[in-house]
């Protein structure tokens, strides 16, 4: 007879409470191969999957806004988010994946038209410290990275990371010998440095020298291809953003920065050369070039013209060719 009836679905708040209780148990009983713990882990896996279903739906079912709001409210009301993040290393891989997606989705959920995750994280910044340092955990770095990027959607989170001087940690993480972790850290740094325009503009204005000294020496000068290519592209993204126009003018007025970009133009990798060109052209286009910039460009005129003439993309790009022609013309007229 049991098969004739479906089990009554749990209400979201109840589901969150049960999940929290199981997480607390798992956290307090980390010993593997414990029969009771294994049972709890199986149960926890099922509950977290149910949470994920409520938030994401599936191929046949769309998420229900009211259920998502109830779930989200309960998650932050009793610190379940904290317990879940802290327990990530103690979960098995499949549960980790689902848990990571739950944390990520909660950053986008509104309750009474408010992103309550932002308020919670602003009041619990130690969780952000935990997510950032998660890049040092080789086994779980990608889970922490995904959650951190979703948290950076909140301006208060980005501001905290920037103002707490934790940007430099990413310069280390990006050079991790593990390719996947390094690539993930690059994605996170890009999100941090490009999403919130006003916050980044203010940060770069206040920390111009310290930030670019580290950025240039540790990333642009890195012997690692991935690091160098991604960092010069990120540099271009930052400088070409209108919100950072003051920073861009300041950057292209430095002879040291010009020398770095000229060296990047000489790289054997066409990808790095191309990304470097998009920054180099800003030095040339500057209508108020400092005398030392003009002097360097004139001294290297022949080499630069030859190098730029040889720089060609695999696919035809009219805008690139137009930019290149303009740069070549500008350099050719310098004297």
UniProtKB/TrEMBL annotation:
Top-rank taxon: Eukaryota
InterPro entries the record matches: Mo25
Biological process terms in GO annotation: intracellular signal transduction
GO molecular function: protein serine/threonine kinase activator activity
Family listed: Belongs to the Mo25 family.
Name of this protein: MO25-like protein At5g47540
Species of the source: Zingiber officinale
